[in-house]
Amino acid sequence: MTTATARDIMTQDAQCVGESESLVEAARKMRDLDVGALPVCGADDRLKGIVTDRDIVVRCVAEGGDPSSTTAGSLCADQGELVTIGADDPIDEVLSTMSRYQVRRLPVIDGHRLVGIISEADVAQHASDQGVADTVEAVTEN
After folding, report:
1. Are the C-beta atoms of 50 and 101 separated by less than 8 Å?
2. How far is CA 66 from CA 13, 49, 69, 79, in A?
3. Phi-psi bin for 80: left (phi > 0), alpha (psi -120 to 50), beta?
4. What is the pLDDT confidence band of residue 8, given thresholds at 50, 70 and 90?
5. pTM for this one?
């Protein structure tokens, strides 16, 4: 019996917003894709961070920033260490990483390339009930 991996449960073909694209462009992509977060990728195709719809509102608009001139890269530049998971890491490691770092979305990397993203919904569909409960409890702690 093989152990399921991050690659098995991830949402494939995660769309990125370029680090030099504006937050308005990021928001439009989120609207068009019906998502609340997008990975931010550099010109070198490396993951730079994640920007959420909440980031745009709270960290730009509410602070008086201009979302048409603020780049996605600048918004995620001060996020600290980027938390990712390897594509071939087991689901237990996915759950542990999401819990430890209290993240709701986990970019999946193969080498240095973004290959997918795992959300709480992906976890709910593929992990044990207890694993889901523990992970959701951990990522929603304050």
Report:
1. no
2. 30, 20, 6, 19
3. left
4. very high
5. 0.82
